[in-house]
Amino acid sequence: MLGYAARNAVLPSVSGFAISLGFVVSGSIVMEQVFNYPGIGNVLYQAVTNDDYPLMQGVFLVITLTVLGANLLVDLLYGLIDPRTRIGGS
Question: What is the pTM of this model?
């Protein structure tokens, strides 16, 4: 059961985790404001309130690169998790 069902069941979970990383980062803005944590959400909030557009662009770039990096890592892990997704496999 682990050999057949687990490989097919884990692929959507892994890709869902990588996609949900963007929601985790956006939720951190609210959490950091409520609990007064210093972090990227707090920096983004201060940039918005102060109309600091270059800082907002930088924060959005960091968030975007983080989400893209997680999705790239998950796509590369697909070959290890499920050998049927490798290129040139038969």
Answer: 0.73
